[in-house]
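Task card 7
Instruction: Convert sequence to structure tokens.
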Amino acid sequence: MSFRVLALLFLGVLLGACSLLQQKRGDALSPRLSLPLNEDSDISTKEVLRSLRWESLSDICDEDAYSYCSAEVDVGPDSLVKEYTLDFFDVDVELISYQGRVIEYEVSELQRPRTLDVSYFDAQTYTKYADQLLGRKLREPALDSLRLDPQTEHAPSLRAYYQLLGVGVRDEYGWICEYSTVGSPPAQRQATLTLVEYWQVELLRKVLHGPNLEGQVYAADALLYLNKADTLSLTEQSRQKIARLRQSRDTLRTCGNRGSYKIYPKPVREVLTDSTIARIPKDYQSLAETGYFDP
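Output:
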């Protein structure tokens, strides 16, 4: 059964729970779900919100009596996407929309003693969003050389690749940053781990020669790491690019000193020193041991 069908079935469960709650108030929500099941089509944001009865749920969440309920919509930092979040008692929904189509949504329902999770990601809609965002900075043929085919690329790798080009994430270089009481890898580090785990050497090379400075440094340390296992990972062109980065006075954004979350501007040549490069295998191994990726 496909992720799309599972997601739609799960949304039906969510609507059923909403309906029971509303029936107690004498104002039942419709549990009917009318989303397209065609695997070749994308999903309309309006249809999902209508099926969720977003407006009705927003009204419920605004009432003081429902303290375990919130429904919010925000415009993304790049002004191209909208982010919808619904926290309805034991059900959480997150949806990202681009030009009226769903890029992704995640549904999580706590059914003790376990949690049910369903996720959906539309690579084609995401690629359109990425192309428009990158088009703000690049012109053809530079933009065309960076494009990926969403119909042939591995979806998690495609997303990770575009994130390393700066799509939908903050540009910041680091290993572990304390965004909360517990540190975690920044988004672009997690994207790097995805490409390393799936051994996407060609995509890492494209990022290394791409327009995003933080992405270039992530790709450099990833290729240096993979080169320990496969000396073919580093081409002569890649070696020359890394050598230029090691001499570069350009500054990138680094997050913390593996401690408190702060952003520091730092010259690239101070990030790719002999000592930091020697420590790269150990740093990747540390992330593997803590479960962030499977080498």
